[in-house]
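Sample 3 of the quickstart, ligand FE3-S4 cluster:
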Amino acid sequence: MREATLRVFRGDKGGGSEVEYHVPIEEGWVVLDAIHHIQAEMDGTLACRWNCKAAKCGSCSAEINGKPALLCKTRIDALPQGRPIVVYPIRTFPLIRDLVTDVSWNYEVAKRIKPFQYDPAIGDKPFVMYQNDLGRPREFRKCIECFLCQNVCHVLRDHGAKSQYFGPRHMIRLAGLEMHPMDVEDRTEMIWKEGGVGFCNITKCCEEVCPEHIHLTDNAIIPLKERVIDSVGMLRVIKGWVRGKTDSE
Ligand code: SF4
Ligand code: F3S
Ligand code: FES
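Result:
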C-alpha cells in the first residue's frame, strides 16, 4: 500500500499551522478519502465540511497545493507524486476551524438579488419557451455553490471588496435571471451599482477553478457588462444632453 504525506492546516481565526500526516492510500482515492482517514484513525478533531462525496453539494471546497478545488473531486494520483499534498481552507471567507470557513456572506448577497418575476400580462396563456432560449440559463443552473470562484476572484480575495462586488457566482445568478425569456424584472441598476460588475476585469480565474466548467465570464459577466453599458451609456447621453441645455441657459 502506498503512503501519502498530507500537510493540513489546523487552526482557527486566532491562528494556526500545518500539521503533517502520513496516510496509507488506496487505489482511486480522492483527497477527501485521506482527510476521512485522518479523522477516523489519527485525529478525530480535524474539522472538514463535506456531504455528497460526488462533487454536487459544493461543501468540500478547499485549497489543494495552493489551488482552489473540491476535496472530493481531486484524485490523489492526479497530484504531483513524491511531494506532500498541502490542504488549506478557502481563504477569502472567515475561518471557523481547520478546513471549514464561514461562507454565509454569499447567502446574504443571494437574498438581495431580485427573484424571478413572471410577466403577469401572460395571465393563463400557456408558458411557451423555445429550446434555444434555455441554453444559457441552464448552464448557470449547474452551479453547486462551492464558492471556489468567489474564493479565487482577486476583487474579493486581494482587494477585500465584498461591499462593492457581488462576485462571479452571483453574476451568473443575475445573468441567468436576466436572460430568462419569461422574466420581466429589470436588475440593470443593481448589476451596475450594488453588484459592481464593473469591478470584474475579466481575468477569468473564476472560470479556471469552476468544477462545473461554467463559462462565467464569456457567457455571463461579459454579456451583463454589455447590457449594463448599453443602459448606462444611454443615461449618460441623456445627462450630457440635459447638462448641455442647462449650461447654455
Ligand atoms: Fe462553484 Fe462554479 Fe458555482 Fe462558482 S460558478 S460557485 S465555482 S460551481
Ligand atoms: Fe473575478 Fe472572474 Fe472577473 S476572477 S475579476 S469575476 S473574471
Ligand atoms: Fe459534496 Fe464534495 S462533498 S461537493
